């Protein structure tokens, strides 16, 4: 595994639409493993392939809604698609590609996603709360959408410092 460089918001790559993954090979596995290491290092909750400069439809999301005493785990989503959304949540969101900035974004409270795993097997997964937000945010990246374009407003430095959001 190796750390990959996380692109920041000035990079045009972040605003391009990604192509589907068609080869479920060692190269994809290497990408996903590297993304996991990069995500852990950056202390994030999600990462999309275009953020490391790869214009393919693959993302990682950390499932943080786990029972007490159990570990959070990484969900790998290849060619993901949101097939159900319900409810509404409004809250602060950030992105490893937009360090230090946060904004208020409205997202569904619950989503169901259909995706392939690293071997090409289709599966479905559900997300609630932060995990639903994260699925939406990461899948947006695959269409060249950065969260700042969905923000109702950005938080001020004072709000960020005080944690008032
Ligand atoms: Ni992001």
Structure report:
This protein is of the alpha+beta class and 165 residues long. The protein has one domain: Peptide deformylase (Peptide Deformylase, Alpha-Beta Complex). Helix content is 22%, strand content 30%. The chain contains 3 helices and 8 strands, in the order H-E-E-E-E-E-E-E-H-E-H. The chain has helices at residues 26-42, 130-142, 157-162; strands at 46-48, 58-63, 73-86, 89-93, 103-107, 110-116, 122-128, 153-154. It starts with 25 loop residues before the first helix and ends with a helix. It binds nickel (II) ion. The site of nickel (II) ion has 5 residues, from helix 2.
Helix content: 10-25%
- Bound chemical compounds: nickel (II) ion
Query: What is the H/E order?
Result: HEEEEEEEHEH
- Give the mean pLDDT: 96
CATH homologous superfamily label? Peptide deformylase
* Major β-sheet profile: 5 strands, antiparallel
Count every beta strand, where a strand is a DSSP E run of 2 or more residues.
Answer: 8
């Amino acid at each position: 595994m190796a750390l990959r460089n996380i692109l920041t918001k000035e990079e045009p790559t972040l605003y391009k639409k990604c192509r589907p993954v068609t080869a479920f090979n060692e190269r994809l596995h290497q990408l996903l493993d590297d993304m996991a290491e990069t995500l852990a290092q950056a202390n994030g909750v999600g990462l999309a392939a275009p953020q490391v400069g790869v214009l393919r439809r693959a993302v990682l999301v950390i499932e943080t809604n786990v029972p007490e005493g159990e570990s959070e785990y990484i969900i790998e989503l290849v060619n993901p698609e949101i097939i159900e959304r319900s409810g509404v949540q409004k809250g602060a969101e950030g992105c490893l590609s937009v360090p230090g900035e946060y904004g208020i974004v409205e997202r569904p409270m619950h989503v169901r996603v259909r995706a392939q795993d690293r071997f090409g097997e289709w599966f479905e997964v559900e997300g609630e709360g932060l995990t639903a937000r994260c699925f939406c945010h990461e899948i947006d990246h695959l269409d060249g959408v950065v969260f700042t374009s969905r923000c109702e407003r950005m938080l001020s430095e004072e709000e960020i410092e005080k944690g008032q959001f």
